[in-house]
Write a structure and sequence with these properties.
The chain has two helices and 32 strands. By secondary structure, it is mainly beta. About 9% of the residues have low confidence.
């Protein structure tokens, strides 16, 4: 996600029941600001690769780069050739746009010649040979792009916000297949310096939209639009208006519906990071937390500590300078800053992802540090090992150097997936809350379980709405007993909320 304007999982051991620490693996990524970074298994080899976009200054020059890094495993990443356009002030999003089983890429931003771009790249034979395709979507800067199947026809459509050469837009482009995208008359206000995100917040089986940013008059906006049979209706829910913002949907309280967190700057220049709790799919109530207030950064959910609930990664500019923080979800609306010692970054982006397939979530971040260095880093999430050192062990000071602190990656990892919704299961005209939780398995490749899970439900429960893969949550563990305990926590939480819980086994 793009980060705008710069104004006038743990480094040290945290002693908890499931203590973990994050270590910089010195991946050698190109440092960028006004940046976007994220994980993607572009080569379909079962582990997460990394893509970064943005700009940096070096040797009295200004440079704009888009870089793709292949995961070579054992904490090694290699820059690979990519024909993807160099951009900053932009964003990118991956999905299987043409339903051929390979992740495709859409990129927006400004290229080195100053041109605004919006480009689709087809993934050819699961390699770095990405083929650019014409779509007719206008180039944008200072905005966002996200894939989502808003009309339930089985392919992913585009939600784009930002500034074009003809003014501001916030628009959905319907995927008509064969690389053809048609703008939908959504009625959204044109916004820049913000973001747009899909989510089925009301559990009616279709994707709704939240937008934030500033319009052409400078008015700051945050608004949720409900999808009613393909028409979007403004809900006027009173969400705090923010610009220079990011938004992340996630069911932080495990009650089966999508909540969200948003950060950014208000109309009068105050920094904010707000959590909103979804109340029965009709309203959102603010939850009072101690999250650091940030703008021009990012927010991302992920269960880094395997306790069955979503934790939060926040980056951006705070009142005390740049920050990158992880907050542990202690439930009942309580979160604890774990003091992860990630590098604080302005104009930044950050995401959870398990790049080493050891069953826990690692972190990638990019942006500009307090001393104006351009940074992109990968942090490995490691459990603290409380073993006595052997006589041959390296000096204890070396454990913080990733060169000496590489654990062997787990060869076999236990996973389960789950999802939920509010719909008429048996066709009697009455909607109920339903949850589906898979049995625990050992997948061979990435996305295998999500795909099988989705196919099973569609086949055996035809009343179930078409599930977007992003709304299926996956938990992975090295040990079977930990996976069983986490699965039981999820099932008990759903049943405690009155959900009908179904076991999915294929």
């Amino acid at each position: 996600m793009l980060r705008f304007f710069l104004g006038v999982f743990f480094g040290l051991i945290i002693f908890t029941a499931s203590a973990q620490t994050f270590h910089d693996i010195q991946a050698g990524l190109t440092g960028v600001a006004e940046s976007s970074c994220n994980w993607i298994d572009y080569d379909d080899d079962g582990d997460l690769d990394v893509m970064v976009t943005g700009d940096f200054y070096a040797n009295n020059g200004h440079y704009i780069k888009t870089k793709l890094y292949q995961n070579l495993r054992h904490d090694k990443f290699k820059a690979v050739y990519s024909p993807v356009v160099d951009v900053f002030r932009g964003d990118f999003s991956w999905t299987d746009a043409n339903l051929d089983g390979k992740p495709d890429l859409f990129v927006v931003g400004q290229n080195p010649s100053g041109k605004y771009v919006a480009k689709l790249y087809k993934n050819n034979n699961r390699t770095q040979n990405l083929i650019p395709l014409y779509t007719g979507v206008p180039g944008v800067v200072d905005g966002s792009v996200e894939w989502g199947d808003f009309d339930g026809d089985g392919d992913k459509d585009l939600l784009i916000t930002g500034e074009t050469t003809k003014g501001l837009i916030s628009a959905i482009y319907k995927n008509n297949r064969n690389n053809k995208f048609v703008k939908v008359n959504s009625g959204f206000p044109g916004l820049h310096y913000g973001t747009g995100k899909f989510a089925d917040y009301d559990l009616d089986g279709d994707l709704d939209v939240i937008l934030s940013g500033s319009d052409s008059s400078g008015r700051v906006v945050t608004e949720i639009y409900r999808n009613q049979n393909g028409k979007f209706v403004k809900t006027n829910m009173g969400i705090v208006p923010l610009q220079m913002s990011d938004i992340a949907w996630g069911d932080y309280d495990n009650d089966g519906d999508e909540d969200f967190v948003i950060n950014g700057e208000t109309q009068d220049g105050r920094f904010q990071t707000r959590l909103y709790n979804n109340v029965d799919g009709h309203t959102f109530n603010p939850v009072f937390t101690d999250f650091v207030a940030t703008r021009s950064g990012s927010v991302d959910w992920g269960d880094f500590d395997h306790d069955g609930d979503l934790d939060l990664l926040i980056t951006g500019e705070s009142y005390n300078g740049p920050v990158s923080k992880i907050y542990r979800n202690d439930r009942k609306g309580l979160f604890t800053d774990i003091h992860a010692q990630l590098i604080g970054l302005y104009l930044s982006d950050g995401h959870f992802g398990d790049y080493d397939n050891d069953g826990d979530l690692d972190v990638v971040v990019s942006g500009m540090s307090y001393d104006y260095r351009f940074v992109s880093k990968i942090y490995r999430n490691d459990p603290v090992r409380n073993k006595k050192p052997s006589a041959k062990k390296e000096d204890i000071s070396s454990i913080y150097d990733s060169k000496y602190y590489n654990y062997e990656r787990a060869d076999r990892v236990w996973y389960f997936v789950y999802s939920s919704g509010y719909f008429d299961m048996d066709g009697d005209g009455k909607k109920e809350y339903n949850a589906f939780v898979s049995t625990i398995k050992k997948p061979v490749k990435q996305y295998e379980m999500e795909q099988a899970f989705r196919a099973y439900i569609i086949k055996h429960y035809p009343q179930w709405p078409i599930i977007d893969q992003g709304n299926i949550i996956q938990n992975g563990f090295v040990k079977l007993d930990k996976a069983k305990a986490s699965r039981k926590t999820i099932v008990d939480a759903y049943r405690g909320k009155g959900f009908h819980v179904y076991t999915v086994d294929w």
